[in-house]
Structure formats: structure tokens, C-alpha cells
Amino acid sequence: MAKDRNEVRYDADGARRVMRGKDYMADFSGQLALGLMANLVGQLTYFYTDKAGLAVGSVGVVMAIAKVIDAFTDVIFGNMIDHSRGGNRKYYQWMLRMAIPAAVITVMMFTVPVQAGQIPALIYALITNLLLTAVIYTMIATPFAAVMVVRTNSQSERGSMGVFRAVGNYGAGMVIAIATIPVTNMLGGTQSAWIKYGVILGIAVLLLFLICYNNGRKAVFASDTEEHASEETVEEEAVPFQEAVGMLFHNKYWVIVLLFNLITSITNAVAGSGGTYYCKWIFGNDNLVGLIGAAGMLATVVGFALSKPIIAKLGVTKTIYVGLLGAAIAAGVRCFIPANLTVYIVTSLIGSFIQIPLMCLYGVLLAMAVDYNEWKYDKALVATSGGAIGFGSKVGSGAGSLLLSLFLVLGSYDSTLAEATASMRYSIYGFSNYLPVVINLLMFVIFTRFDLEKKLPAMREEVAKRKAARGVQK
Q1: Contacts of residue 203, Cβ cutoff 8 Å, sequence gap at least 6
Q2: Do 157 and 250 fall within a single domain?
Q3: Are residues 77 and 387 in contact, defined by beta-carbon separation less than 8 angstroms?
Q4: Per-residue pLDDT of the chain in tens (474 residues, 90 and over written 9)
Q5: In 3D, which of 437, 408, 400, 433 has the Cα closest to residue 269?
Q6: Are residues 288 and 148 in the same domain?
Q7: Distance between CA atoms of residues 182 and 180, nearest Å
Q8: I need a surface site. Which of 62, 131, 267, 390 has the fewest CB within 10 A?
Q9: Three-state DSSP class for 233?
Q10: Chain centroid offset of residue 246 CA
């Protein structure tokens, strides 16, 4: 017998299920588009220096300025979105507004006017970087993060959304990393080839955003379910920016989620660049990065496939405990056996696998912190909360790059040497092995204060009673 698509469904906690398969795929499309934009930035340094001919030092300054400004726009735009009107569907409206600008800026990243000289070209690079990351990307990503909170009250469905989004983001990174150089070389390897590549990406980004928006405008939200259909939906009263930020920093769970994003972004940034140094100077062959990366992709695929059952079995908090301790132990093994290639590969694979479920929980943790805001303050602060979390991720990424550089400076790094000195080796061991142990154990200690998972059902029930008493439904 065919299943009734209108059948009312509930999760194990009694929360109404509203998501269908096409909803998850549309959500995946939105995250895939955002991932393409974000990972494209990682290719720009090479493009600017080797294809556009810009000075290496100047490019570094431009990228640093863009990152600093970008980090603060999340909070500002988040508060602005919270002040906007349109109910729950306002979060998707931003995707429609920015879809065409996103496609256009994706192409413009590569139309650097090199013939005008270094200064005009660098100014152009700075402006287009800010438009891509600090404005357009943020204007889509911040409300998109909020969608997970308002779309469903089911922790199970939020977890599934987290898995689809993590796959979309990781998949975008793989597409950009694997396709960029071969495709641009096939097109001629010149700046013109990169512009053509940008056009392909721009069209893909536009279509993916439109797919996500089209589904979102017709989506069923938790507030649209039958038991609430006759109740009035009102906009949450806007909270002034300074007051909203003060509320967030008095929410210890939001602060923990902020630190979680900050610290994991640091480790990801270090790991993203650190492997090349390890393979080149410890094992004597930087081509091993590709081999280890391919093996890591397999571990990642398995990790994504098992994330949902792992999270369902252990719950949010225990999954994070296992991920943090597992990553610390894997790095700890390398501290004692740092120069063994087999040990390095195995521990890297274990580390990749065990941290994938954590990637799937970013949105879930944010949603839990937002639910606590509503219980404590009677204000969800959805977009402001999500925007400030984006701040932690961006600052963490910058801090990771800075830490990596600091370790290399302390180790007197010299790329012209034939073999690594003792100080260079220990600096590489420092950021690849010792730093992950310290950071993951620190985050584990911090996360022991996150006792919200078991409290949420009672808190939501209390919030629902308050709303019922006021005759208000969000």
C-alpha cells in the first residue's frame, strides 16, 4: 500500500516532521552553491599571482583586509535580516534577491584589469573579494543558516539537513579542488580561460540557488502545520543590534557554539595547508598529498554515510564528545610516532572519518542555541545568532592561517633548503600533531558545559504554552 503523503508524522521527541526528500535535495542545492562560492576564494591567490601577475605580498594584504572586514558583516547583516519582514519565508527571499548578483560576481572575480597596472588591479581584487564574501555570500548564507531553525522543530530532521548540507559543502570543495586547474588548462590556461571557467560556475550557482528558492517558497514550515494553521502568525519584535549581541553573549550555549565554530575552523585551516609541509619535509615527497587526499575522500564518504545513524545512536552531545576525543587521540599517536608514513596515513583517515559527524551538527547546535534564546528572552534572534556564528568560522579560518605562519617562523622555515632542519621539523610536528591535541581537548572541556540537549523538550513545551497563553504563534 502506498504511503499517504499527507500523513502526519512525528519524531521520537514528539516534534512534527515536515521535511520530504525533495526538501533535503533543494537544501543541498543551496549549500552546494554557497560551497562553490566559498571554495572559489581558495583558488584566487594562485590566479592573482600566476595568471593575473599581481605581486605576492600585495595579494596577501588584499586577502587579509577582505577577511577582516568579512568577519564583521555576518553579525551586521544577521541583525538587519532579523529586522526585516516576511515571516519565515523571508529567509528564502534573500536567496532570490542575491542569486543573479552571486552569478555575476563569480565571473567578475577573474576579470581583473591587469592592463591598468598593479594598483588598479589590486583595488579591483579587493572590491570584488568584499562583494563576493562580505556582501553577497553573507546575504545568502546568513538567512540560509536560519532556515534550519525555522523550517522544522524536529531534531532528527535538523540532523538530516545538517548531513545534506555538510555533503553539499564538502562536495563543492572537491569540485573546485579537482576541476579548477584541469578545466582552466584545458581552456587554454590564460586569464581568459579562467573567465570562461567563472561563467560555468556562475551559471551553476544561479541555477542551484533558484532550485533552492523555488522549493523554499512552497515549503511547509513547522509553523504551517495543521494544529497551528488557524492561529495568527506575527513577526518577532526587532531587537536593537547592541541589545541582541548582549543577549547572545549571556547565552552560554551560544557562546559554546561560537567557540566550537572558532576552534574547529582553526584546526581545519591548519590541516588544509599543513599536510603539504608534512609530506614534503617529513616524508620527502609532496606528491603524497594527493594520495593521502584520495584516501581521505574515501574515509569522508564513509563518514557521511554513517553520520546520520551515529548521531541518532549517540545523540548530539555524545557524538561531539567522541569526535573531539577521537581527533585528539589520533593526533596524539602521531606525537609519539611522527615520521612513520603508515601511521600518518592511518591516523589522518581516522581523524577525517571521526570528525565528519561534527560537520553535520553545526546547524543543529545553532538551532539549539536559538531555541534557548527564545526560552530565555522570548526572542529567537535567528539570523543574528547565525551571523555571529559565521563570524567565529571566518575568524577561526584567519587565526588558523596565522598560527600556521607563526609555527613556521618559530621553526626558522626556509623553503630553499634541500632538507628540513630540526627546528623546521619540530615546527611542522607542532602545528600538525601537538596543536590538534591541545585544541580538541580544550574544546572537549568547554563542551562539557553544553547540557542543553536533554533540557530542550521541556523548554519548547514551556515556550509553546507561553505563546498559547498570548494567542501568538510564531
Answers
A1: 103
A2: no
A3: yes
A4: 445 555 667 666 667 777 888 888 988 999 999 989 887 876 777 788 778 888 766 776 787 777 778 777 877 887 777 777 766 677 888 889 999 999 999 999 999 998 888 899 999 999 998 999 889 988 898 888 878 777 887 777 877 887 888 788 877 877 776 778 788 888 988 899 999 999 999 999 999 999 999 988 887 776 665 444 444 445 556 677 788 888 888 899 989 988 888 887 777 767 766 776 788 888 887 667 667 766 767 777 787 778 888 888 888 889 999 989 999 999 999 999 998 999 998 998 888 788 788 877 877 888 888 889 889 888 877 777 776 666 776 677 667 767 777 787 788 877 678 888 999 899 889 988 999 999 999 999 999 988 888 888 888 888 888 877 876 544
A5: 400
A6: no
A7: 6
A8: 131
A9: strand
A10: 24
Number of structural domains in the chain: 2
What distance lies between CA 317 and its chain's CA centroid? 19
| H or E stretch covering 17 | strand 16-17
Same domain, 146 and 80: yes
Contact by Cβ (8 Å): 109, 100: no
Same domain, 252 and 288: yes
CATH of the domain at 92: 1.20.1250.20
In a domain, 102, yes or no: yes
Residue of 158, 133, 71 whose CA lies nearest to 390: 71
Residue 168 lies in a domain: yes
User: Phi first, then psi: what are they for 235, rounded to 5°?
Assistant: -75, 140
Amino acid at 299: A
Cell numbers given for 398: 584567519
Task: Note whether 198 and 97 are same-domain residues.
Answer: yes
Q: Which three cell numbers stand for residue 386?
A: 547565525
Q: What burial letters (b/e) apply to 86-106, b meaning 16+ CB within 10 Å?
A: ebbebbbbbbbebbebbbebb
460 located within any domain: no
1 burial type by CB count under 10 A (0-12 exposed, 13-18 middle, 19+ buried)? exposed
Cβ burial 161-179 (10 Å sphere, 16+ → b, else e)? bbbbbbbbbbbbbebbeee
Provide the grid cell at 434: 601537538
Q: Where are the alpha helices (DSSP H) in 10-152?
A: 21-41, 44-46, 56-82, 90-108, 118-129, 138-151
Quick one: 143 and 256 in the same domain?
no
Residue 275 shares a structural domain with residue 399: yes
CA 158, chain centre distance (Å) = 15
Q: Is 443 exposed, middle or buried (0-12, 13-18, 19+ CB in 10 A)?
A: buried
Largest CA distance in the chain: 74
User: Which domain covers residue 112, as residue numbers?
Assistant: 20-218
In this structure, the answer to whether residues 384 and 436 fall within a common structural domain is yes
